[in-house]
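User: Predict structure, ligand fructose -6-phosphate.
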Amino acid sequence: MRVHVHQSAEAAAAETARLISETVRERREPVLGLATGGTMQPVYAGLVAAHRAGLSFAGLRSFNLDEYVGLPPDHPQSYRHYMQVQFFDHVDVPPDRIHVPRGDLDPDDAAAAFEAELAQHGPIDLQLLGLGRNGHIGFNEPGAPAGSRTRQVRLAPSTIEANRRFFDRDQSPPEVAVTMGIATILEARSIVLLAVGADKAQAVAAMLEGAIGVACPGSLLRRHSDVTVILDTEAASGLSGD
Ligand code: F6R
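Assistant: Predicted complex:
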């Protein structure tokens, strides 16, 4: 596992965008696993800037980690919509190569369809991950089985609270999602995890220096042979270095 610590969140996001751009440049038909959330917005801005500077995403196929159950793809708070606004609207990725679990279908059917698409077009060359304050990856909350695959999950109360900032005051954030499983994530050829800010420091320390186990899903990434963790100094502030 490589751990890169940057002086600022901006520099950490810029390195993440650069690593993704390199994968896209090197492969004729790159397969990316993508994440949403506040952390990733500057990463997508960096990729859009790379596109404007000449990088083509025409050969890209993308698989997003998760989606809220109950939200159709055009719902303003759906992750499919987030991806459209943050990234897809600004680059040349063909729409039929975009895969996001469907929030408007029966969750078991949506999960099975997503796994089938992944089996057909995978493996993922580079999986982008954020980190939950409780150590979740995708929406695999603490206790999620290491062998889990794409499925319906109930979000932890702290995750629902953290997501509330993306919803209007009179809307309650969804409590159920479809997420790639931990085993699904670990099948990617390489993984890049980005975490910034002091509110991730405890989860980062548990991921990198705590026991490897389902109590901190991020710690299970230490079983993968090609993982780059990109942090700013605040997110790295809980590390002892031991
Ligand atoms: C998003 C995802 C989540 C987020 C995590 C951090 O697709 O799978 O694991 O990466 O909750 O979210 P932010 O970046 O909003 O702190």
